[in-house]
Amino acid sequence: MAKPIAVYNDVHKSFGDVEVLKGIDLEIAPAEKVALIGPSGSGKTTIIRMLMTLEQPTSGTIVVDGQYLWHMEKNGELVPANEKHLRQVRGDIGMVFQHFNLFPHMSILENCMVAPINVKGVPKKEARERSAEMLEKVGLGDKLDDYPSQLSGGQKQRVAMARALVMRPKIMLFDEVTSALDPELVGEVLEVIRDIAKEGEMAMVLVTHEMDFARDIADRVVFLDEGRIAEQGTPEQVLENSKSERLNSFLSRFR
Ligand code: ADP
Fold first, then answer.
1. Which pLDDT does position 1 carry in this prediction?
2. Ligand 1: which atom is nearest the Cα of residue 176?
3. Which numbered atom of ligand 1 lies nearest the CA of 38?
4. Which terminus of the chain, N or C, has less C-beta within 10 A?
5. Contact residues of ligand 1, CB 6 A cut-off
6. Ranges 49-53, 83-87, 199-203, 227-231, most confident
7. Cα 147 to averaged position of ligand 1 atoms, centre (Å)
8. Helices 153-165 and 108-120, interaxial angle, to 10°?
9. Atom 11 in ligand 1: which residue has the minimum CA distance?
10. What ipTM was predicted for this assembly?
11. What is the pTM of this model?
């Protein structure tokens, strides 16, 4: 396997007294598409939020693109990456949330331009061109000057995707991006993710309850259960030939 783009090594996470991740070991290859599935509360979101540096582990090591994001000293102390590396990681990772988190007072073009200009120092003209191109790609090329309030939920989610893609991330994280949408809008958003996945070069980690979608686009499906990786493998192995009772029972809810 090529050098992984992200590695979790014995990662634990507690909120107060509750341990929600109980030793996660996970490697993500460049360009690999990983679907994270599992019951609500099993820790899926926490896993991807840690890559985005939105949560810090309680113990363990996370490496992104060959550099520590967090690592444990011999004395058990958890040491974060330095500011420079943290900034770089945040620039290399794009995340799309369940709720779109767009800036309401900016046009959708401006929404996409903010991060490249402020975080990566991209000149304004180039940021505008890149943003327009990305909005075109997600099917919103005719709405550049619209404000988020003028758009449907599916369109807003596509803006959120364009906004993340404009940063040209090495890893894209998708956190249940269709769960807040009306059912008739889910398809258009999944279609855009499929298109992005087909282009190939980015790693993707998708927390999803859309099992057909996971089967279609994932190279690997990881089943998380009570803070542990309980099973993983190809979509066929995990979704069609699952070994454990827990996984079978989880999957039966989607059949
Ligand atoms: P999933 O994405 O699989 O639904 P999460 O990673 O969101 O699971 O949450 C795992 C557990 O951690 C849940 O029990 C949730 O309530 C808890 N949790 C998540 N974030 C916080 C937080 N900031 N403070 C306290 N508990 C949290």
1. 60
2. 2
3. 3
4. C
5. 15, 20, 38, 40-46
6. 227-231
7. 32
8. 20
9. 41
10. 0.97
11. 0.93
